[in-house]
Amino acid sequence: MTETYARTTSAWRNWAGTVTARPARTESPASVDELADVVRRAHAEGLKVKPVGSGHSFTAAAATDGVLIRPDLLTGIRDIDRAAMTVTVEAGTPLKRLNTALAREGLSLTNMGDIMEQTIAGATSTGTHGTGRESASISAQIRALELVTADGTVMVCSAEENPEVFAAARVGIGALGVITAVTLAVEPIFLLTAREEPMGFDRVTSDFDQLVAENEHFEFYWFPHTGNCNTKRNNRSAGPAAPPGRVSSWIDDELLSNGVFQVACSLGRAVPATIPSIARLSSRALSARTYTDIPYKVFTSPRRVRFVEMEYAVPRDQAVTVLRELKAMVERSPLKISFPVEVRTAPADDMALSTASGRDSAYIAVHLYKGTPHRSYFTAVERIMTAHAGRPHWGKIHTRDAGYLSEVYPRFGEFTALRDRLDPDRLFGNDYLRRVLGD
Fold first, then answer.
1. Residue 223: strand pairing partners
2. What is the mean pLDDT of residues 95-106?
3. Is the model's pLDDT at 362 over the cut of 60?
4. Sequence-ordered list of residues with C-beta below 8 angstroms from that of 374, at least 6 positions apart, any chain
5. Would the pLDDT of 247 be above 70?
6. Res. 335: pLDDT tops 60
């Protein structure tokens, strides 16, 4: 085979700067056949193999000292099937490019997360999600996927073909092989009306079930050290489109959400005592707004302030209890928290290691500005989450291991048995997978 792919040996770091890896080499295959060849060669050399996307995971899920595979040359849409209403996309395609390409074709994903910098394979492998009453994560929208396994075999998985692999590989954390393409369900493009509105913590939590039930997509942010929240309700609209004005959008999404927030976080990191006052001022500065646009312009927004994050999925009927415990913990502690807490929901799904596997879920995410010591806060939060059988996001900071995770995932053994079959030599293993899946 003629080698057309790039090969380097430089260090790799993730977006947040929490993980650094020094692989023996980095390769960027330009086709599925080349990728399969890379896997076979690494296996023959006794080197581990890990694919990496955009590096937006905070964990070391993609770290390796072996062969790091970058999917930069495996991008673009392979096929659009308008009869089946699916799109097949190469694994390295950034969500941003996928969303804009689909929009040009008059198509859209049903639901998505709140940023679109990740690659499609990286996002789905770690269970990236948005918020939805009935619509679930991006992984739940997968209808088929193509996977290169440890012996270099190219396997196609769907509900009909290799269904046991399909049930696991949609959220596979890179443990089962290298995903090379994903087939997603799509629908004709539609409009969403977003209603953003400040609301008190006590009202949001007392009305939480009603707010979730009445809206297709409901989420909110609580500002620690205050009783203030900002809510967002996204619902389908008959139109017409009414996007935010260019000036007001820049003020809200760039100046306030990124520029001013960056300054506030920098000040808070330097002088932690100022954080509660800053939180009160910033949360009171929020104002209501309503706008209507195509989905990716409503679901997603720019996130330029770098941070570290922990997120847990808890049973949705325990969300309010968990939130109140979290608020009480912050209020009685000396912690100074500069980032709001994000709350979203998802319906139960059927994927073995999805954080919503088998149960309706609420996601509670905590963040701190990059460079701020996070261990005390995240440890206290994790203690609350695990008391409620919380499941950590696979790409966000947590300390759980296989012993704990096997108790909160009923199908954990199904996944690890499949891993034993597909990768008995742990070609795709690393320290993170050893901790969360066992060995």
1. none
2. 98
3. yes
4. 308, 310, 368, 397
5. no
6. yes
**Interior CA angle at 33 toward 30 and 39, to 5°?**
95
Q: Could you give the CA distance from residue 92 to residue 184 in angstroms, rounded to a whole number?
A: 14
Q: Over 60: is that where the pLDDT of 256 sits?
A: no
Q: Across the chain, what does the average pLDDT equal?
A: 93
d(CA 153, CA 201): 52
* Token duo for residue 81: 């099937």
Tell me the CA distances in angstroms from 426 to 71, 401, 419, one per residue in order: 21, 17, 8
Two structure tokens written together for 425: 């030599």
Centroid of chain to Cα 434: 21
How many Cβ atoms from other residues are within 10 Å of residue 285's Cβ?
10
- Report angle CA 28, 29, 32 to the nearest 5 degrees: 145
Pairing of strands 191-200, 289-293: antiparallel
Question: Under 8 Å CB-to-CB from 333, ≥6 apart: which residues?
Answer: 380
Helix (H, G, I), strand (E, B) or coil at 101: helix
Token pair belonging to 173: 């954390």
Query: Beta partners for 348?
Result: none
Report whether 77 contacts 101 (CB < 8 A): yes
Question: Which tokens belong to 324?
Answer: 């109140």
In the chain, what is the straight-line distance between the N-terminal and C-terminal CA atoms, in Å? Answer: 34
pLDDT tens figures, 274-327: 888 877 877 777 789 999 999 999 999 877 788 899 999 999 999 999 999 999
Query: What global pTM score does this model have?
Result: 0.94
Report how far residue 240's alpha carbon sits from residue 293's, in angstroms, rounded to the nearest whole number.
9
Q: What is the DSSP string of 288-320?
A: -EEEEE-HHHHH-----S-EEEEEEEEEGGGHH
CB 352 within 8 Å of CB 393:
no
Rounded Cα–Cα distance for residues 120 and 116 (Å): 9
Helix (H, G, I), strand (E, B) or coil at 268: helix
Do 345 and 133 meet the contact criterion of CB atoms below 8 Å apart?
Answer: yes
